[in-house]
Every structure is written in C-alpha cells, then in structure tokens.
Amino acid sequence: MESIGEIVASDKIDFRDTGILNLAYLGDSVWELLVRKYFVEKNMDTNSLSTRVREFVNAKKQSQIYNEIFDTLEEEAQNVSKRARNAKIKSFPKSCSYMEYRNATAFEVLIAYYFLKKKYDKIDGILKIYIEGVK
Question: Nearest CA to 66 among 55, 51, 77?
C-alpha cells in the first residue's frame, strides 16, 4: 500500500489519458477533502462543520466559482475544463440545472488537473478567495 505522500506525489495518473468523468470524480474528492480540512482546522462542532462544508461542496457553488475564475485560467487549464464542460453527462441532480452541473464537472476536473500537475498553489488560491474571502 502506498503512503499518503506517495499518493499525492503520484505520477501514475495522466490527465490526458484518463476519462474526463474519472478526473471529475478525483477533483470532487480533492476539493471536498480540502474544504473539510479547512473547516476542521477551525475546530467547529460537527453539525456546523457539515453545514459549512455543504456550502462549498455542491454543484451550484462549484458552478459559480468556475464561472467566476474561468477567464483568469491559463490556456491549458481552460482547455481541460472546457473538455469536461462538454462531456456527455447523462444525468444530473434536481438540485441544480444541467448547465450548473456541467460547470461543476468542469470545476472538479480543473481541481484534479491542478492536483495532478502539482499546482497546489492554484487550488490554495481558489480556497482563499472563495472560503476565506481573501482577494
């Protein structure tokens, strides 16, 4: 079994060869883990913790963030996320529109892209702006 450091530093996943929805799955996990970590560090009670995390780990919020940051992304990140936004998604939850879900998928792929490229500062920047409100 790999250590956490080996998993994070892994070069076994190539975003160019991995299915776009698999990347979204990974990005969703990375985003949720980092949002949870952020609020756990604030030492909140469990109910507050769950509520605060849900504010940032949902399709509507991810879509909003994606729309706000898209124009600031470097070209390669825009291209990767556009590929995700245009993926054939067969179903989506009733809690958001089809377009919001597509944008949320693009956001999750963007997070996976930054994670796999070890551009952790990019993810940190998004967290600081949208969770801490620091611009």
Answer: 77
Tens digits of residue pLDDT in 10-44: 667 776 778 888 899 999 999 999 999 999 998 88
Rounded CA-CA distance 52/34 in Å is 13
Q: Which secondary-structure segment (H or E) carries 39?
A: helix 20-41
**Beta-carbon contacts of residue 117 (< 8 Å; ≥ 6 apart):** 15
Q: Report the alpha-carbon angle 81-9-110, nearest 5.
A: 10
Q: What are phi and psi of 91, to 5 degrees?
A: -145, 160
Tell me the two tokens of residue 91: 């179903």
Examine the residue annotation and report whether 14 is marked as an active-site residue of this protein.
Answer: no
Q: Catalytic residue among 28, 45, 121, 124, which?
A: 28
The pTM (predicted TM-score) of the whole model is 0.87
Contacts of 34 (CB under 8 A, 6+ apart): 123, 127
